[in-house]
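Contributing: when you submit paired examples, paste them exactly as shown. First protein:
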Amino acid sequence: MEHELWVTALLNNYLAGVASAVLGWFGVHAHNPARPWANFMAMQILVVLIILVLFAVLRSRLSMDRPGKLQHIFELVYDFLEAQGEEIVGRGAHRYIAFFGTLFLFILFSNLIGIIPTFESPTMFMPAPVPAGCAMAAFLFYNLEGMRSMGAGKYLAHFMGPVWWLAPLMIPIEIISHLARPMSLTIRLFANMFAGEQVTLIFLGLVPVAIPAIFMGLHVFVSLLQAYIFMLLTMVYVQGATAHEEH
């Protein structure tokens, strides 16, 4: 049984009924109805709240004449996402920047929050519900965008391959390939974050604080890298799904 974080305990003490009701809508029943909130649920809600508050503060301080440090930081982030999108997806990348940015920031903050004492990264919990959720969001997004840009019929037709007589071979291959993508995204994100967290915890328990600080710096790097790779692969999938509209 996992150790209950203090944030999770607060939710279970005061909002247990809300969680049970929401889970009931989807036909899911908590193992312990009195404590339905799991750590990963509490932490991902906290991440969302942090991002919302951050952007609320940013919005209130936006200025054309005297931009602050926070505005400069997010302008750099936006410029970076836009440049990556245009390089990978192409000219129509601006339509997808909001999704790419949301995915990147949510995963990045989810990865980084585990560095704060008494918190844990929601991306490192088994059986990887948060990475799987992000992966399914990416999977649905690029397929829906492919259908929107090409039309459902034409998009599904490309699963048949370049010539019709290859369809019996190409359709199963394409389906397996596409279904493997969310699995690959999930495993990559979860495995790297879980491994990084375990390494940091082990060294915290064995050696003085100065040495684990190095691994915490490594954890920050891995957190940033994994968020970037996840977003980058999503861009590649979107490019593959929408590239046909230019032919």
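Second protein:
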Amino acid sequence: MALQLQELEALERLRDDFGFTYDDLAAALVTNASTLHRWRGGTEPTPIYVQRLAAFASFLDELDAFLVPEAQRPWIDTPREVFKRETPRQLILAGNVDRVTGVLYAMNSGAPL
């Protein structure tokens, strides 16, 4: 399973547009920042990490389908009832990006939450 440009772009976008640090992203991926930088430099991560990186890209795809860019950062920083008053950012930092993506997917599909 090869790392795709989309996964690397997701890391950069999370950093640039949403203020996550590389340390934050590495912790959410259950690795360290130096490993993350090696991947950015071309070292191939193991398949489990490719899947975790792909989860970031999927999150951004669903977020883009749900909100216009200027509304995205406020959305991830606001506590949400669906997340038991935690922010999407808190869940992402805790390694639960799939949970946030799932809620966005449901919202994009018109499911009542």
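If you have annotations for the second protein, write them as plain sentences, like these:
The two ends are 34 Å apart (CA to CA).
The chain has a mean pLDDT of 93.
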